[in-house]
Design goal:
It comes from Limnohabitans curvus. One of its GO terms (molecular function) is phosphatase activity. InterPro entries: His_Pase_superF_clade-1 (IPR013078), His_PPase_superfam (IPR029033), PGM_Phosphatase (IPR050275). There is one protein chain. The protein is α/β, with parallel strands linked by helices and 222 residues long. It folds into two domains: 170 residues, Rossmann fold (3-Layer(aba) Sandwich), CATH 3.40.50.1240; 45 residues, no CATH class. 44% of the residues lie in helices and 16% in strands. It has a six-stranded mixed sheet. β5 and β6 form a beta hairpin. It is globular and about 50 Å long.
């Protein structure tokens, strides 16, 4: 029996020229998670991450907080979908970066619509795989973990892949994974137990490292 800890990256840089970069708060969230686990005496037997900068930066923050260093296997199937490509697929033209509360609301409304149509096979966003191929990249990582690992495994990825993994384990519809995706908090931990045959959900979207009064303002979603 093993335990798989799935961590969404810390706060990235929504609205900036390069989203794939942790914000200063994102780095703090990651470091704080590592401190929390270090205090619990948690250790990992294996680490798997997506190939994006924010995944590697989140892992680095966790490691710094834990005072340990783990060699990580990079799994490209754990990379996030391209939100800009999804939005352009349903709203051609120049994509305006959100800078206001209403702009962010509109961004996520369009993203939901794009995700729904992509999952249904209605649109094929430029440069992106089909949703079936995207989901296969996520489930292949879960299969690998079941077949090759025991003990505690850390997986660092993004909201889309983690929501897809949870939806797969719970056997719910792809559309339900959109709702899971939109509720995932930065540096949140979801947990599966696993054996050679299956994964089982133990916890979803928890932020125990941010539940103290001094860290309540560190909870973010984007």
């Amino acid at each position: 029996m093993g335990q798989l800890y799935l961590v969404r990256h810390g706060q990235a840089s929504l609205g900036a020229a390069d989203y794939d970069q942790l914000s200063p708060l994102g780095l703090q969230q990651s470091h704080r998670l590592g401190e929390h686990w270090q205090a619990q005496g948690l250790t990992f037997d294996a680490v798997i991450i997506g190939g994006l900068k924010r995944h590697a930066q989140t892992l680095a923050g966790i490691q710094q907080g834990m005072g340990t260093r783990h060699e990580a296997r990079v799994w490209p199937g754990l990379n996030e979908y391209d939100s800009e490509a999804l939005i352009r697929a349903i709203q051609p033209g120049e994509l305006v970066k959100p800078t206001t509360p209403e702009g962010y609301k509109q961004h996520f409304r369009l993203l939901r619509d794009g995700l729904t149509q992509w999952m249904a096979g209605v649109v094929s966003p430029q440069g992106m795989p089909s949703y079936t191929e995207f989901a296969k990249g996520v489930t292949s990582a879960l299969d690998h973990i079941r077949q090759q690992h025991e003990g505690n495994v850390l997986l660092v990825s993004s909201g889309g892949p983690i929501a897809t993994a949870v939806a797969h384990v719970l056997r719910v519809s792809p559309e339900t994974s959109i709702e899971l995706n939109m509720r995932l908090r930065n540096s949140a931990v979801s947990e599966f137990s696993f054996n050679a045959k299956r994964h089982s959900l133990i916890a979803f979207n928890s932020v125990p490292h941010l539940e103290t009064p001094s860290h309540k303002d560190w909870v973010t979603f984007a």
